Amino acid sequence: xxxxxxxxxxxxxxxxxxxxxxxxxxxxxxxxxxxxxxxxxxxxxxxxxxxxxxxxxxxxxxxxxxxxxxxxxxxxxxxxxxxxxxxxxxxxxxxxxxxxxxxxxxxxxxxxxxxxxxxxxxxxxxxxxxxxxxxxxxxxxxxxxxxxxxxxxxxxxxxxxxxxxxxxxxxxxxxxxxxxxxxxxxxxxxxxxxxxxxxxxxxxxxxxxxxxxxxxxxxxxxxx
Length: 224
Ligand SMILES: Nc1nc2c(c(=O)[nH]1)N[C@H]1C(S)=C(S)[C@@H](COP(=O)(O)O)O[C@H]1N2
Ligand SMILES: [Mo]
Known about the structure:
alpha+beta, 5-stranded mixed sheet, 5 helices
């Protein structure tokens, strides 16, 4: 007799259960493939929200330096001070890195592809002296920012000339800006003209105006 215990019915009911279970897993998001190793909220520092746009923040001045007049000076407590023109700067090794931007005004922008000169390659050339512990970045718009040398020396800190495959636009700091991704973005000076190494710390533009001297987004060091 062919009743509900037949192999075909058993097979049919087993499949129904499997489908129902898998459907429940899908609703719960289980067994997802292609999931990043970290969840998005793990990449978002406290109090930040993700944006797809890239806002522009500056002091109201966008210094337009023609490349033939552009210079980068690196001085202070270094063994080999340097003054580079654009061609000499281009001759330094070029590095590609990807990093997230965290601005103190609470937006974060993920997955920025930067190209430029790795800070580490610059440090290898100028050789900071043992007493050098802090760095001040000076910009063509008179902006300054300060940071500990060990924060500047991280592996993915860059003197960036390109973003997502294109030359940096003027409004975002072109022709060259610093990118120090593990600190709030105000530390990443745009239009850099001088990098100075010091034994003591000197607060920069925003650090003198109520912003935190260190600026670690993961510890929410916004104001200080
Ligand atoms: N030279 C210079 N660099 C600067 C600034 C500035 O006003 N001048 N603003 C800082 C601030 S507050 C932020 S959030 C970022 C903004 O960079 P963006 O305009 O490319 O987003 O640049 C930082 N670097
Ligand atoms: Mo900012």
